Structure formats: structure tokens, C-alpha cells
Amino acid sequence: MDGAKEMGIRNVSSICSLTKLDEHDLSCLPEKPRLNIERQRSFDERSLSELPTILTRESYDNYDSMHSPCGRSCIDTPASFGGNSFNPHPIVAEAWEALRRSLVYFRGQSVGTIAAYHHASEEVLNYDQVFVRDFVPSALAFLMNGEPEIVKNFLLKTLQLQGWEKKIDRFKLGEGAMPASFKVLHDPVRKVETIAADFGESAIGRVAPVDSGFWWIILLRAYTKSTGDLSLAERPECQKGIKLILMLCLAEGFDTFPTLLCADGCSMIDRRMDVYGYPIEIQALFYMALRCALVMLKHDGEGKDCIERIEQRLHALNFHMRSYFWLDFQQLNDIYRYKTEEYSHTAVNKFNVIPDSIPDWIFDFMPMRGGYFIGNVSPARMDFRWFCLGNCIAILSSLATPEQSMAIMDLIEARWDELVGEMPLKIAYPAIESHEWRIITGCDPKNTRWSYHNGGSWPVLLWLLTAACIKTGRPQIARQAIDLAETRLLKDGWPEYYDGKLGRFIGKQARKYQTWSIAGYLVAKMMLEDPSHLGMISLEEDKQRKPLIKRSSSWNC
Ligand code: GLC
């Protein structure tokens, strides 16, 4: 960031104006961390000084020194087996076998993994396709095992698909849109293979996947960081691909918020679940993708312009999310006491949230110590639900401050039964029931209470939890969660999700041999075994950004 933009983040010692209670004014307050947490040093900090890694503090997030190859040889057996002190759980071998069975080839090259292998007995729907989001844990497993080729092939293949003209009925989608999934078609007569991609035009609900492009950028950085091969990200087509994805998000419009407005069902939760507007999952992925793009974009003419816009957006998004999406006991109490109908820029309750709209469950759920980013914030609406993916990505991208990251982990520990239960990990908490379920889901029989996206437990989320645990210096939490998963995953045939308040039952319509359940487990295992893998998927706090100053303290100024 240059000096002028730094001014935007402002000088702490400058005098605070009472008339403009916005971000600038708030930051001139002394930092008063609300949570009194005995911070363990995070993995990021320790990794730089103590772990046998070639990274240094300066180089950790620097594109020029992104090289952190895992140094594994490309052998067929999982590298985990070769470790000296590591004693692999017997299901690790089974998991690798299952993961390899799910490989999809296109003209002789592996280009991805199928969503679920065991779909014979059930309706196939689109589970025989390669989903972009589902491939991420597979890709990380292969990278960690020293097999980057498939990841490279996938990145290039999906990039080609981005180049297609995408239409839903007569409406043309934005150029940068990435597919939700693709399928390899074999023509036995002509003996050719072709690819069919789905950008939302075939998906149930016809929603374009906003998360696919973000995952693509995040994966490109993971590949680069893991292999040290800068040449892929530097290719003109990759540079263009990044810019096209971000142009869809950085375009100017009527927005008054830096968060990204989107439709219900545009990410992992791909059915109507009241996850529209400004859902945390998309905002956290957006933030992470912006930061990853920043280290990969070349500073040439077009790149420079894009970099500038990314920096401005990151700055605003960081402030907005840390201030308005963050909820802990104190903040909840502040909202509970909010005045409403405040007009002008001095308003404390900026979005006019009516305290009566706070759901009952949150008062019991919120521990004295801990916090999280809530599901959604928009005018007069706060979705207080806890979503796993968004909170883990907030930690990994350093959208969360170190204090907030620790608080998220504190909450997971304090609410272990609710969020982890007997099978990690709840996709969202709590479930929507009865009348609310009818109205919100449109009576969706797949998303009944404590099932699927509506409070179901998804083993794939284990890798995200593990990464967040390592980053916050709490690997023991991940170990406990992995132990739980190991008692059942293989025996149950790697289900897609589990149902019930404690996640005790194999999901009503869960697919078996769901690839991301398998890969998510392997990635979690490998990261615990060798925490230096974390660097692939984690970004350190941007030291240039200001620490969080709480909005509710603004009147102290
Ligand atoms: C379901 C999930 C979605 C996933 C797809 C393939 O539709 O909701 O997140 O990508 O299955 O596994």
C-alpha cells in the first residue's frame, strides 16, 4: 500500500473528530481488546521461527518467495506412510485408495475427482461430476503428497471452461464465471472425450456458483506455494483468469457496503437456506481470494489497476466484517440494548436492527468467552446463525484478528456438543424448524431440521477446522475431532453428511464414498502430521492493516 492509501487506514496519534464517527474516528481509539484471552502463539508466528521451513517472516506471504515445496517424491503410496514418527491410522490407506478411485481422466490426464463414487444405488443427479469446490480438499491432499500434476491440470482445464460462452436461457453470464462442476463425456463410437460444464444452467435452482472462482484463485496460490512453480500463475491466461473473476466482484454499482451481494444457494449450501444477501461464507472466501490474487497478480499495466482496486476493497471489507459481522457476549449485549430509528452518521445501530429480532437461542449459546462472525448482516437483519466454513476461512485468511481467531476457537470448545457433537462438523447452527423451515426453505424435504445444510454435520469440514486449529495453536482440538471421525467414517462408507443434533445418524440422503469426506479427512491428518502444510492455505495477518477497534466503543472517543 502506498502512503496515501495508508492514510485511509489512518494515523493513530491524530486527533479524533467527534463529528464523524466512522472508521477513521474509531481507529484513533487506543486498542482495547475486549476478550481477555491468554494467547498461545499462533502457528503462523511459530512456524516462522521454529519449524523447519524455508520461509522467513518477510517472505511468508510474498509472491516472490512463495516456494515452499513439500519435497515429497511423486510415488504412488501416500507420503504419510513414509514419515518417521507418524504411525498412520489403518483407515488412511483405505482413504487414499478411495480417493484414487475417484480420479477423473480427460484424454489420458487426471483432471479432477468425482463428487461421489458410490452413486450406483441412488439417483446419480450430478454426483458423477467434478465439482470445483469439492476438488479443493482433493487438490490439497495431492499437493501435500507431492503430486501437483493433477492440480495443475485441473486449474488449466477449468480455466479453459471459464472461456466458454455461458448462457442461462437467453441470458449471458459474466465472462469471469467459473463452473460449479464439469463432466467428461465419452463417445464410444467416435472414440472421443468431451467436457460438459455446468455454470448454474443445469444446477438445481439455476444459481451460478459464486464460490467457484474464489476457490480457483485460492487453489492457484496453494499450488504455487506448495510447488514453488511460479510459472503457472504467471502465465498470461492465468493472470487473465484471475482478473476476470475479480472484475465480476469489483465492478462499481449501487452498493453501499464492500461485501458482495449474492443469491441464495450460490456456494456450498447450494439450496434455498436463507443464505443470500451478504453471507459470511462468500464474504470470507472473497476476502481470501482477494488476498491470494494480490500476491499473484503481476504489476503490469492492467494488473496494477486491478491491484489498486483489490487493495481498496480489502481495506473496506476488512473494516466492515470485523466491525459489523463480529459477535461476542459484549456485542450481543450492546445489540440487545440498541436504540432504533437512529438517523444520520452518528447512529450506533447503523443497520437499524430491532433488538426483538434477536432469536432466543443465541442468549444461551453465546459463551462469556468466545465469539464468531455471524451469518449475514444487512438492513434491519442479522442472521445470528453460526456457519463453519465462513468462520474457518476468516481465520485462515486473517480476516479475523488474532483475538477474534482465538475467540472463534474458544466458542468451538465451549459449544463442543452443539458444533462437533459425535461427528465433526456442523455446517450451520442451529437448525431452522417448523414454520420458519417452511417459509425459509420453501418446505425443502432435504433440508429438514438437523439434516443436510440445515444443521447437518459434514466430515469434509474437518480439514478446515484442523487448519484453523493449527493456525491458532490449538492442534489438540483438531486431534479430538479427528479421533471422533475415525471411529465411524470408514465403517459408515465415507458419508457426505450426518444428521441429528449430535450428528449421530448417517444423513437421510447422504451419498456414500463422498470424495470430499475422504479427502477432507486425509488433509486433516496430513496437516496435523506436518503443520508446515498450513502455509498453502493460510495467510498471515496483513501487518499494514489497522487493528480492530470496536464500533460499540465509538462514543468513548
Ligand atoms: C451438494 C452440496 C454441494 C456439493 C455437491 C457435490 O449439492 O450441497 O456443496 O458441492 O453436493 O458434492
UniProtKB/TrEMBL annotation:
Q: Has the keyword Hydrolase been applied to this entry?
A: yes
Question: What Gene3D superfamilies is this protein classified in?
Answer: 1.50.10.10
Any Pfam family matching the protein: Glyco_hydro_100
Q: Which reaction does it catalyse?
A: Hydrolysis of terminal non-reducing beta-D-fructofuranoside residues in beta-D-fructofuranosides
SUPFAM superfamilies, sorted: Six-hairpin glycosidases
Question: What's the Enzyme Commission number for this chain?
Answer: 3.2.1.26
Q: Does the keyword Hydrolase apply?
A: yes
Q: Which residues form a coiled coil?
A: none
For this UniProt record, the keywords arranged alphabetically read as follows:
Carbohydrate metabolism, Glycosidase, Hydrolase
State the function annotated in the UniProt record: Invertase that cleaves sucrose into glucose and fructose.
Write out the similarity annotation.
Belongs to the glycosyl hydrolase 100 family.
Protein name per its UniProtKB record = Alkaline/neutral invertase
This protein's species is Hibiscus sabdariffa
Q: What is the lineage of its organism?
A: Eukaryota, Viridiplantae, Streptophyta, Embryophyta, Tracheophyta
